[in-house]
Amino acid sequence: MQFYTINLTPLTRRFAHRRIEYNEKRLKMFQDRDEELKRDKTYLEVAEAIRPSEAKVELHKQKTLRDDRLKFLVGAIAEEKMLLKGLKETVEQQRKRIFWETKGEEGGEKGGDEDWEQYYDEQYQAWAWYNKKTQEVQWS
């Protein structure tokens, strides 16, 4: 009987989950900054000490700077979403591969999804799957 999984160490699995957490926090940071910048209207004002002839140029500079920041944030948000999607898909594919099964030499099945239960291993600080039927452990 063959049973295929991605062979990752607990350290690699832990890294994948930490990377997802890191990217989620980064995405939130970019989204918060984007909302804050959109609410901020100070780019429409100039200091009173500026001559009226220079005010138009200063307003244009401030608007250009704000637009550049918003453009960066939109790109950063899109990139973080793409990275998160890829990371989560990889982790999910790995989890699904744990359940991938083929017929054994005796023609029996290794067990269906209902035979597996997930638990958290405190020693490795990682999630694992335990097959109640075969008593096999696979790391997620």
Structure, described:
The protein contains two helices and three strands, in the order H-H-E-E-E. It is mainly alpha-helical and 140 residues long. It has one domain. It has a three-stranded antiparallel beta sheet. A hairpin with a 5-residue loop joins strand 2 and strand 3. It starts with 9 loop residues before the first helix and ends with a strand.
Write the layout of secondary structure elements.
Blueprint: H1 10-39, H2 52-99, E1 116-121, E2 126-131, E3 137-139
Antiparallel strand pairs: 1-2, 2-3
Helix pairs in contact: 1-2
Short overview:
By secondary structure, the chain is mostly helical. It has helices at 10-39, 52-99, and strands at residues 116-121, 126-131, 137-139.
Roughly what percent helix?
55-70%
Overall mean confidence score, pLDDT: 77
Query: What is the assembly state of the chains in this entry?
Result: single chain
The share of residues in extended strands comes to: 5-15%
Q: How many separate domains make up the residues? A: 1
Q: State the distance separating the first and last CA atoms.
A: 21 Å
Can you write the helix and strand succession as a string?
HHEEE
SS class: mainly alpha
How many helices does DSSP assign? 2
Shape: rod-shaped
Number of strands: 3
Rg calculated over all Cα atoms: 26 Å
Q: List low-pLDDT spans.
A: 1-8, 101-110
Main beta-sheet strand count, sense and barrel state: 3 strands, antiparallel
